[in-house]
Amino acid sequence: MDSYGQTILFTLFISPCVGMVHHCACSTNLKDCKNLYQMPVDFHTAHEKCREEGGQLMSVRSNKSDEVVGFLLDNTIGHFWIGLHLPEGKCSSNAISLRGYEWTSGGQGTEFSNWGSEEIACAPLCVSISSDRKWMERPCAEKLDGFLCEGDQKNLCTGREASSVTFLDDEQCLSARCEHECTPVAVGYMCSCMQRFRPNARDPHRCDFYCTSTVCEAICARDGTMCRCPDGFVSSEKNCEDIDECESNHDCAQKCVNTIGSYRCACFDPFILVNGTECILNPKFEFTTPSHNYVVRGSLSSPGEYVGLIIFIIMAVFAVLVLVHYLRGRKAAVQECNPSDNEFQKSGSQ
């Protein structure tokens, strides 16, 4: 158990809704979280989804990481993308641990590998993993059952669906600080919350009251004189009503979407969300004309390219103005050198 340190596993048993986090594992400071998403996506879409949440596809570089993967995929059926891909123009090789593949987080460093086959490939491939924890090579465009993300994603690990928290530690319930209920498990102990409560985001040993709808019943004293509502709600007699944070101050760069007890950020097309609040232009944005038979595909991906495009447009407009000015001056000069017939007549009569 020492290899786990003070790792916490947030067990989110969620109905199989598209795009939901099924399992999540976090460190005690909630700065390093690993999440299992269940939604049909290809590799590149999975990579973008992780970036939108402020993370990246998971790297499995050690035995410890592989053990966390085992927990996340426990009792799970399907295949899930991890952050490993073979770059275009390269062939795999069994002579090295990663066989020429690279992590989306950068580099080829690893202390661990668990390949499911030894076939040599010379085409762009990506790697998936399943409950047997074997690394399988697949076409990157193939849609799998989900993907594994890692990063600072504590809001996902302490989300609305969480009802229990498993601590990977040698401690047992005798020394645990679970506020509601503690259950001994093989890897340590599990703190659970009663109905209508969930683990606290800062200290998962504690439990917070929460609502599943915009209006819910408050928790009141027996005499009904004092009632309590969860964060993000306001008391209205013996009920709790959701506060629309989007009508007040929020930190969203473009769009704010109100949710039950909180809010989330979104972006206008063709921008995509990063780090939960910021918006950047989608690198794959397509410039289209009104004609359905003609499409110009833009591949601008850096601020310098956008600046260069703007400068080019300005210079083109300036050049057109200079040309118009020159042509007008040229026309005036020609008229001075070649006076009209009326002007000749006037000069003759004089």
Q: What are the main properties of this structure?
A:
350 residues; alpha+beta; Mannose-Binding Protein A, Chain A; twelve-stranded mixed beta sheet; three-stranded antiparallel beta sheet; 5 helices; 19% helix; disordered N terminus; disordered C terminus
Description:
With 350 residues, the protein is α+β, with helices and mostly antiparallel strands. Among the domains are: 2-157, Mannose-Binding Protein A, subunit A (Mannose-Binding Protein A, Chain A); 303-337. It has helices at residues 43-52, 63-72, 154-157, 303-337, 341-349, and strands spanning 7-11, 20-27, 33-41, 55-57, 80-85, 102-103, 125-129, 136-139, 144-151, 164-168, 181-185, 188-192, 197-199, 207-209, 215-217, 219-220, 227-228, 233-236, 239-242, 255-259, 262-266, 271-274, 278-281, 286-288, 295-297. Strands 1, 2, 3, 4, 5, 6, 7, 8, 9, 10, 11 and 12 form a 12-stranded mixed β-sheet that branches. A 3-stranded antiparallel β-sheet has the order 15-19-18, with no helix packed on it. A two-stranded antiparallel ribbon has the order 13-14. β22 (271-274) and β23 (278-281) form a beta hairpin. The longest helix is centred in the last third of the chain and has 35 residues, at 303-337. The radius of gyration is 31 Å and the shape is flat. 26% of the residues are buried. The model is unreliable at 1-8, 10-19, 289-302 and 341-350 (pLDDT under 50).
**What is the helix tally?**
5
For the record, the CATH class of the domain at 2-157 is Alpha Beta
Structural class of the helices, strands and pairings? alpha+beta
The percent of residues in helical segments reads: 10-25%
Strand content: 25-35%
The whole-number mean of residue pLDDT values reads 78
Q: What is the molecular shape? A: flat
Terminal residue distance: 116 Å
CATH architecture of the domain at 2-157: Roll
Rg (CA only): 31 Å
